[in-house]
Design a protein that fits this description.
Low-confidence stretches: 1-5
Strand content: 5-15%
Strand order of the largest sheet: 2-4-5-7-6
Largest sheet: 5 strands, mixed
Mean pLDDT: 80
Shape: elongated
Order of helices and strands: HHHHHHHHHEHHEEHEEHEE
Number of helices: 13
Distance between the termini: 38 Å
Structural class: alpha+beta
């Protein structure tokens, strides 16, 4: 009750009801005078008791009155729900008061068809007149502020269009630069490969090792450029979200990783059923490919990777977990691993670019989801994603 009394609309309603009740107690004679119906003839007499004309006026006034009540109630609810974000929300309440008093004048028209309470009808019209004049007077000083608000919206729209154009140009520039960077990398890798194939036997072991490093480094750089482009793309897009079948997404991720799974003889255990989730299928496939790929890759030498995938649902949120028997992650690195180019191991130990988890976290944020993990060094990790249940 205390929290409700702090609301202005509640306080004003109590004040108006209290004032009306006090007036009725202090001036009972005035109230009786307003309610007198024996001084005049009702409107039905003016209509010559014609039922058709009476029905026309009564039905019209009732519909208008209820429409006014509906409009004022909607305005009051709008202000109540969004008063923190609506400028001049008190003006909406003033309009609501004006509209509701207009509605009551129409209800009085219905009443006076049969009861000649014209003093009461006049009092209601007087209240409506006060509300109308007060609203009109309060509205005029707001005009400069409204014009300034419209100008601000137009300026924001212009800035939005300029930002979209700049992003589009930046995207084109990024792809152009990436193409120009990848071309010499492909040439380096191709030259090193040709030298190894055509002249490898004639080269000493050290020269062969240098050529292998050149080919490997150019391939890693090419992959890094591609992943950075993908990270940039995900940061800009607004993905389409819909109900996605997790089993089909996981099957796509396994298909993309089939070579690594066979090479490492990894065991993938999927605990079905996997409920659907609200997500973008392409982005979710990238996320699961990255997480399952890491689970297969980051294991101790000589250990067969074992990955368990399972799901749980609570309060409309679906959590999909990928549990492994890998090397684990120290608690000191919990936030570090989601940064760009953050690697906990050398490329010789575990190949990669240091972009995968950053890309996965960015993709989850674009889908209104979360990515996290629990881990014990030497025992394995359990990465999980959370999305709205489908």
């Amino acid at each position: 009750m205390t929290s409700a009394f702090r609301k202005p609309l509640f306080r004003y309603s109590i004040l108006i009801i209290g004032a009306a009740g006090l007036a009725a107690v202090l001036f009972p004679g005035a109230l009786r005078s307003l309610m007198r119906a024996d001084q005049f003839m009702p409107h039905a007499s003016c209509y010559l008791r014609n039922p058709k004309i009476i029905m026309l006026h009564v039905s019209s006034d009732l519909l208008i009155g209820f429409a006014y009540l509906s409009i004022s109630t909607t305005l009051a609810y709008l202000v109540y729900k969004a008063r923190e974000h609506i400028p001049f929300h008190w003006m909406f309440l003033a309009f609501g008061l004006f509209i509701i008093t207009c509605g009551f004048t129409h209800f009085m028209e219905v009443w006076t068809v049969w009861q000649a309470v014209y003093w009461l009808a006049g009092a209601v019209k007087a209240i409506c007149a006060v509300a109308s004049v007060a609203t009109a007077i309060a509205l005029y000083p707001l005009l400069p502020k409204v014009f300034a608000l419209v100008a601000g919206v137009q300026l924001s729209e212009e800035r939005r269009l300029k930002l979209e154009n700049a992003n589009s140009e930046l995207e084109g520039f990024a792809y152009s630069v990436a193409h120009d960077l990848r071309a010499p990398l492909r040439a380096m890798k191709g030259t090193a490969t040709v030298l190894m194939e055509d002249h490898g036997p004639a080269l000493d072991p050290e020269a062969q090792q240098h050529l292998a490093r050149i080919a490997d480094a150019s391939q890693r750089m090419d992959r890094l450029i591609c992943e950075l482009l993908e990270y940039s793309r995900i940061s800009r897009i607004v993905p389409e979200l819909r109900s996605v079948d997790l089993e089909s997404v996981l099957a796509e991720a396994q298909h993309a990783l089939c070579a690594d799974i066979e090479k490492n003889r990894a065991e993938i255990i999927i605990e079905r059923p996997l409920p659907p989730a609200i997500a973008n299928q392409t982005l979710l496939t990238q996320v699961l490919t990255n997480l399952v790929g890491n689970a297969v890759k980051f294991v101790a030498p000589g250990v067969q990777p074992r990955v368990r995938v399972f799901a749980s649902k609570s309060d409309g949120v679906l959590r999909l977990s990928i549990e492994d028997n890998g090397i684990g992650i120290a608690s000191a690195h919990r936030t570090k691993i989601f940064g760009l180019f953050q690697r906990l191991h050398s490329a010789a130990e575990y190949p990669g670019t240091g972009v995968g988890l950053a890309l996965a976290e960015k993709a989850m944020s674009r889908m209104n989801g979360r990515l996290g993990f629990d881990s014990t060094p030497g025992q394995g990790s359990c990465f999980w994603i959370e999305l709205p249940a489908g």
